[in-house]
Amino acid sequence: MIRVTRKVEFSAAHYYHNPDFSPEENRRVFGKCNNPHGHGHNYVLEVTVAGEPDPATGMVLDLKELKDILQREIVDRMDHRHLNHEVPELAGKIPTCENVAALIWNLLAPKITQGKLDRVRLHESPDLFADCTAESNGTGGRA
Amino acid sequence: MNGPLKLSLTRRYRFSASHRLHSPNFSEAENQRLYGKCSNPYGHGHNYVLEVTVTGPVDPETGMVANLGELDPFVEREVVEAFDHKYLNKEIPEFGGCVPTTENVCREIYRRLKTFPAARLERVRIEETSKNSFEFAG
């Protein structure tokens, strides 16, 4: 099996706030990420697709097609947006790196028809990233 | 079509330390042959980059596998404060009888971080230089 990874970047704003928490609890749990004005990141997304290369083309999937899927499903939806207010799929959720990575997985998995989505790695900053894999995928689970 | 998902969170930390690769069980010539310039008796140093990966369920109240407000101080206390600007051979007791290769540093850091209470430690990865990296997953 071969894994193919494509990288794409987007910039977005967010803040962390749970309406079920008191203001003090929100500040304690979320720290400066609780600032209601929001703050932003340059997110770097790495999407890995696994599969056997097609003997005729030598490719697991057409990277141009993956690029277009990432643009349409992720960048157009999230780039220069406020994740709390402008991405309806995150309504009622805290837009942490973990939750955004899981949403990206759920948006991409049905769109990838050649090969199989293996891993979504979302960097919020150069020092922090979340990996989302299928629980059943013993190999992909090891980030 | 989507089964259950697995989420993990990876955080990068930095520390600078010196070490010397030298085993008292080998002759000087053998140390020299095995470890080369890493066996220089005065030691040498690196800017280590430590990647810590934790995994577990995403808490629906916080959206997090682990809160960095808990992970950062834990790693700072258990590893960064202990290792940063130290001579690993002399100042980390566990390297009294074990050569502080980055393989062994990975294992020691994994041992120290394994007790993190809020999520499961999945992996420790260390970049000794921009060209060499090592990882240990238990």
Report what the structure shows.
- The complex is a heterodimer of chains A (143) and B (138).
- With 143 residues, chain A is an alpha+beta fold.
- Chain A contains four helices and five strands.
- Chain A has helices at residues 23-30, 63-78, 83-86, 97-108; strands at residues 2-14, 39-51, 81-82, 116-125, 128-134.
- A five-stranded mixed beta sheet of chain A has the order 3-1-2-4-5.
- Chain A starts with a strand and ends in a 9-residue tail after the last strand.
- In chain B, a hairpin with a 5-residue loop joins strand 4 and strand 5.
- Chain B has one domain: 6-pyruvoyl tetrahydropterin synthase/QueD (Tetrahydropterin Synthase, Chain A), CATH 3.30.479.
- Chain B is elongated and about 60 Å long.
- A five-stranded mixed beta sheet of chain B has the order 3-1-2-4-5.
- Chain B starts with a strand and ends with a strand.
- Chain B has helices spanning 28-35, 68-83, 88-91, 102-113, and strands at residues 5-19, 44-55, 86-87, 120-127, 133-136.
- Classes of the chains: A alpha+beta (143), B alpha+beta (138).
- Strand 5 (128-134) of chain A pairs antiparallel with strand 1 of chain B, so a sheet runs across the interface.
